Amino acid sequence: MSVNFFGTKCKESSRQDKLFGICDDQNGTKAYTNMTDNTKWIAKVINNNDLAISFTPIDNCIIVLKEGTLDKESTCDGMLTFSNSLYLVELKKQGIGGWLSDAKSQLENTIKLLRSKHNLEEYKYKKAFACNKKHPNFTVIDAAEKKAFFERTKGFRIDAQVEIVIK
Q1: pTM over 0.90
Q2: Nearest-CA neighbor of 93 among 56, 41, 30?
Q3: C-alpha torsion angle, residues 92, 62, 165, 54 (rounded to 10)
Q4: What is the mean pLDDT of the chain?
């Protein structure tokens, strides 16, 4: 089965709003963007340059099966695409313990799947965001881990924070 992360019915219409949220109701449905109810926001997107941004839900929308099985691959919640940038987003609502390593694992697996299906060279800026509503302030990922993630993913930078600033 052919999987296309970019040409999917799941993709939302592009938007140029200065501020919007990315939500995941954590009930088996896909992630989505929202302008009106910031209590549901897990990630906050700040778009001061009014760029046209598209959000595409991945988890619970683009289904990739593990080779030779009927088991679903672990993927991140969605991606933001704009100009020459690709930002992957994993949304969490977890307390202490293990959330960041889970998020990084889901992001890395999604990157591996994306690379196996698409040429990502058109994207100059590639980032992966681990966002946790229960840890809204910047979570430190040390320089060595950032470098290792960048090397493992062949060019994606990692951040752990709920604010995604579009540049």
Answers
A1: yes
A2: 41
A3: -150
A4: 93
